[in-house]
Amino acid sequence: MSTFDPWNYREDAGYTPGTDIVGYKIAATDGDIGKVDEATNDIGSASIVVDTGPWILGRKVLLPAGVVQRIDTAEEKVYVDRTKDEIKDAPEHDADSGADRDYRDRVGKYYTEYYTPGR
């Protein structure tokens, strides 16, 4: 049984440290949802901030790196294993609280609740 690690990229996601994915499109399991606005690759706290643009009224959401299924550098696209609705219903990105432990715990818990092994 595998456990979900929300704050680290999966070994098979194709992420290479140092790769700049800002500007890449984000593909949910049911369609594109926006672009990467910010990205961090810090061990234990890696994440991407997605600007959803007009899809959900310009809202930004924080996606833990663990939801990234794969990164396609040729297409400049990041594939995540969440639906548009799961991302839309996620806690809104709060730039002022990005490093706040309570905020990160809330975001991590939200995505962990949606985790299904082998998804």
UniProtKB/TrEMBL annotation:
<dbReference type="InterPro" id="IPR011033">
    <property type="entry name" value="PRC_barrel-like_sf"/>
</dbReference>
<dbReference type="InterPro" id="IPR014747">
    <property type="entry name" value="Bac_photo_RC_H_C"/>
</dbReference>
<protein>
    <recommendedName>
        <fullName>PRC-barrel domain protein</fullName>
    </recommendedName>
</protein>
